[in-house]
Design a protein that fits this description.
- The protein has 255 residues and is mainly α.
- The chain has one domain.
- It has 11 helices and no strands.
- Helix 3 crosses helix 7 (147-175) and helix 5 packs antiparallel against helix 6.
- The longest helix has 31 residues, at 83-113.
Length: 255
């Protein structure tokens, strides 16, 4: 299993797309902090990169890589190896390579220029979102044999989590503005890992007042220790559940 993980990691880290992705993040990270005197403004500038660009690259690259590795996976399946070990090795290799790329590109500049609780949380959220969207990508890839359809599903999932979900939440808020929606809003936020990451970072930056009434709700829950533990558990579930379902499908799939 470790040999497969090392092979996948080495293969991905040699990929020109990942090298360009790492350099892009590193240039953006260094530029933001060198252009801004205030590190908080620099972290806010990186927030959109972490919440939009990182999930997009992770989900599309991982989906394409799984499809391109179909022959390699079939070769491994023909060997005396358990399917779950093959799938978990592929996941670990992809996730570790993308985590390393993110840490070099965003993690190093943040820790160098803004070594604080807010900076550490920004990096932690980015690392968790990287792993989450790799897991979601593998579920989308194993669900269908058609490469174009699988990539389309991955892009639609990214659009839903990054853009459409917030629109649906606003629609619900406007339609049911006369009803108490505090607990329902907290529940809705758990259905989107990107939203949880955004709330975590904004609350740590003490800009929850800018979020109005909903900011006060999130501050009262996510600002407490039980709330932070609950949100962390939810993020971990977002890592585990898509991987678990993709593993079940892969174990039963006729290659």
């Amino acid at each position: 299993m470790i040999k497969i993980v090392k092979y996948v990691m080495a293969d991905i880290l040699r990929n020109k797309i990942i090298i360009a992705y790492t350099i892009f993040l590193l240039v953006i990270g260094m530029s933001v902090f060198n252009l801004e005197d205030n590190t908080t403004k620099g972290l806010l500038s990186l927030l959109n990169i972490v919440l939009i660009v990182v999930p997009l690259v992770c989900i599309i690259f991982s989906t394409i890589y799984v499809y391109n590795s179909a022959e390699f996976v079939e070769l491994l399946v023909s060997q005396p190896l358990q399917r779950k070990h093959i799938w978990l090795s592929l996941f670990c290799g992809i996730a570790l390579a993308l985590v390393l790329a993110f840490f070099i590109g965003i993690g190093l500049p943040v820790l160098l220029y803004s070594f604080s609780a807010t900076g550490i949380i920004l990096v932690a959220v980015g690392l968790m979102l990287t792993v989450i969207f790799v897991a979601i990508a593998m579920l989308a890839a194993v669900k269908t044999r058609d490469k174009a359809k699988g990539i389309g599903i991955a892009v639609l999932l990214w659009l839903y989590f990054s853009l459409l979900f917030d629109g649906l939440v606003l629609f619900i808020l406007f339609q049911f503005a006369d009803y108490p929606l505090e607990n329902f809003m907290l529940f809705l936020s758990t259905l989107n890992p990107v939203d949880i990451g955004r709330i975590f970072i904004l609350l740590k930056m003490d800009v929850s007042a800018l979020m109005g009434y909903t900011g006060a709700i999130f501050q009262n829950f996510f600002g407490t220790l039980p709330g932070m533990i609950t949100a962390t558990i939810v993020m971990l579930l977002w890592m585990v559940l898509p991987l678990y379902f993709s593993l079940r499908i892969f174990n039963r799939k006729d290659l």
